């Protein structure tokens, strides 16, 4: 048995592990939700911590808010380059047969900056405003189909459906085929061990299919009047219309993947958080104008991406520890978002915080989430539509969590709806 899965007396067992043996890379700790206890210890005893041995090799953990900011905003020393390992604790290996997409999230300047600039207009607030009524109408239609007073799985029936619906709306993707987007998003992030694809070759084939599909949509829209979907916006923008093929596909995939699991798990995480904090749920019920403050709080609380990783390009001191050139450095956003020295009552979910955007879930610096306003917009619309229809989304059983050290995911959440 995994000695770091500490059930039932988790706190006592975790407190007895020698600090140098703590390894927070284990996906099981996120799945059984004991990870917070490990981060509490690291922040208190050794906020910059070196793990010598793990299934992902040696790595540094950065666990406090200010230290994470210092790393995230110092891209000259801490690189995101795919060829050095990329942005996740597990190295991005170059595998024969895999399709190596160009994604600016795993690039350093100057290429990162040029590519990011090319697609930024697609998620500008003024453009997103145009999408709001369409997202709202479709979200309402999905919620109106749900059963009242009966148990069902919120993740399957709502979180996945709403996220897919939103993606399809953003791209103005053929509505009946919208589950293709969910599939491509899953395939793009899948390794063969997950069972989602059989091999890297199979993955490559599917992604080429995805590219061809998008190419057809692109070619149609470039010859039409500009519209307000992301494909049309990119096809007509001087900054993006002439992208080479792998750049076009890579950046499209980044827009699809970037907003998929993250938003899905924020939708489920919000329901769970409100049920765990009944006083906060009562506040929301009494005053739905709090939704715009609650949304960033949900994103902090859930922290849909637990970490981003960097590789040190030179020796660097942080928190009194000497990081060496080539070392793997992991910024644990999930831990920084619970750091009491930066966020008041960080271990509580509070929907009317004074400064709710003061969190790390979107990262900082040059790679700060490009879709952050889009993510907030989607969640705001969804919660406004939920509030109009249901006085309560009641969690009726234990949530099940994803076996992953990167995506903080909820895979099943039994609920029952109470009509307003
Ligand atoms: C980057 C989180 C939604 C597109 C990132 C990063 C994080 C993140 C942590 C990396 C930041 C860093 O390295 O400093 C989230 C969360 C979301 C969300 C928590 C939802 C709650 C979205 C959406 C889109 C999106 C809806 C779609 C447009 C991107 C892109 C990047 C990015 C394109 C790369 C930015 C760059 O490298 O310059 N996101 N994201 N994200 N995200 Fe999001």
UniProtKB/TrEMBL annotation:
Keywords: Heme, Iron, Metal-binding, Monooxygenase, Oxidoreductase. InterPro entries: Cyt_P450, Cyt_P450_B, Cyt_P450_CS, Cyt_P450_sf. Pfam families: p450. One of its GO terms (molecular function) is oxidoreductase activity, acting on paired donors, with incorporation or reduction of molecular oxygen. PROSITE patterns: CYTOCHROME_P450. It comes from the Bacteria. Belongs to the cytochrome P450 family. Cytochromes P450 are a group of heme-thiolate monooxygenases. They oxidize a variety of structurally unrelated compounds, including steroids, fatty acids, and xenobiotics. PANTHER family: CYTOCHROME P450 YJIB-RELATED (PTHR46696:SF1), P450, PUTATIVE (EUROFUNG)-RELATED (PTHR46696). This is Cytochrome P450. The lineage of its organism: Bacteria, Pseudomonadati, Pseudomonadota, Alphaproteobacteria, Sphingomonadales.
């Amino acid at each position: 048995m995994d000695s770091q899965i500490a059930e039932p007396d988790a706190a006592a067992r975790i407190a007895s592990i020698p600090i140098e043996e703590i390894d927070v890379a284990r996906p099981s700790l996120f799945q059984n939700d004991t990870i917070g206890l490990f981060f509490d210890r690291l922040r208190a005893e050794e906020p910059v911590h070196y793990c010598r041995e793990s299934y992902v090799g040696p790595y540094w953990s950065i666990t406090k808010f200010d230290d994470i900011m210092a790393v995230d905003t110092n891209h000259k020393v801490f690189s995101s380059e795919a060829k050095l390992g990329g942005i996740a604790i597990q190295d991005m290996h170059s595998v024969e047969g895999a399709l190596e997409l160009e994604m600016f999230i795993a690039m350093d300047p100057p290429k990162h900056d040029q590519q990011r600039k090319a697609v930024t207009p697609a998620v500008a607030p003024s453009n997103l405003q145009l999408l709001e009524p369409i997202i709202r109408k479709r979200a309402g239609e999905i919620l109106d189909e749900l059963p009242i007073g009966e148990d069902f799985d919120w993740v399957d029936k709502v979180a996945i459906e709403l996220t897919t619906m939103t993606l399809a709306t953003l791209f103005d993707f053929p509505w009946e085929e919208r589950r293709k987007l969910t599939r491509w998003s899953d395939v793009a992030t899948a390794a063969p061990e997950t069972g989602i694809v059989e091999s890297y070759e199979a993955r490559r084939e599917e992604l080429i299919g995805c590219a061809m599909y998008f190419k057809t949509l692109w070619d149609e829209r470039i010859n039409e009047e500009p519209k307000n979907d992301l494909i049309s916006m990119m096809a007509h923008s001087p900054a993006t219309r002439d992208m080479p093929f792998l750049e076009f596909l890579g950046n499209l995939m980044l827009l699809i993947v970037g907003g998929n699991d993250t938003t899905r798990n924020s939708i489920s995480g919000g329901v769970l958080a409100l049920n765990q904090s009944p006083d906060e749920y009562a506040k929301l019920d009494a005053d739905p104008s709090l939704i715009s403050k609650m949304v960033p709080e949900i994103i902090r609380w859930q922290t849909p991406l637990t970490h981003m990783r960097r590789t040190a390009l030179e020796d660097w001191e942080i928190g009194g520890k000497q990081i060496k050139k080539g070392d793997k450095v992991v910024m644990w956003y999930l831990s920084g978002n619970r750091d009491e020295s930066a966020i008041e009552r960080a271990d509580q979910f509070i929907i009317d915080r004074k400064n709710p955007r003061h969190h790390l879930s979107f990262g900082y610096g040059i790679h700060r989430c490009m879709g952050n306003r889009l993510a907030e917009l989607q969640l705001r619309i969804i919660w406004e539509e939920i509030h109009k229809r249901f006085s309560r989304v009641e969690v009726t059983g234990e949530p099940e969590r994803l076996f992953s050290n990167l995506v903080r995911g909820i895979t099943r959440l039994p609920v029952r709806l109470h009509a307003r």
